[in-house]
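Hi everyone, sorry if this is the wrong subforum. Our group has a chain we'd like a structural model of before ordering constructs, and none of us has done structure prediction before. Sequence below.
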Amino acid sequence: SKMMKYILFSSLEPSQLPVLKELTTNEICRVWAATSTYIRRQLLQKKAVNIGIGTFAVLPAHATLAEGEVLPLERPVFNLSRTLRKFYKLKCPKTKIPEETPTVQLDFEEIAERIHFRGEIVEQCIHETLLFFAGTLQDGKEVEFSFR
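Answer:
Right subforum, don't worry. Here is the predicted structure as tokens:
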């Protein structure tokens, strides 16, 4: 399965990240910025997006105002895959994405077009970044992954 390629039993070797080695930090950031834009567009269309290690979605929520008025809101969530949570023994808040939510995968070609990259470079860059992320989990390091 897609998830299994992010199950690492040992530290990463640099040879496992050939594309990341070739790209500049700026280029990697551009790939992820375009990926964030893609994810955001899908979320606005009420779709969930599976990125390989988990799924982004928007869930209904509500805020109670001072006057006791209830304001309906939507809150973005990221659901790390159960396989990864178990394997890396991670404690994550459980969020249930409703079954009826349509889920899409990343469209590498569409993301690549926005930044004038080749689709396979974008796909490999995302894959290797997620591998690197899994590698830091395997090494028990703190990792911060931020999306706009």
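For your construct planning: The longest helix spans residues 25-44. The chain has five helices and four strands.
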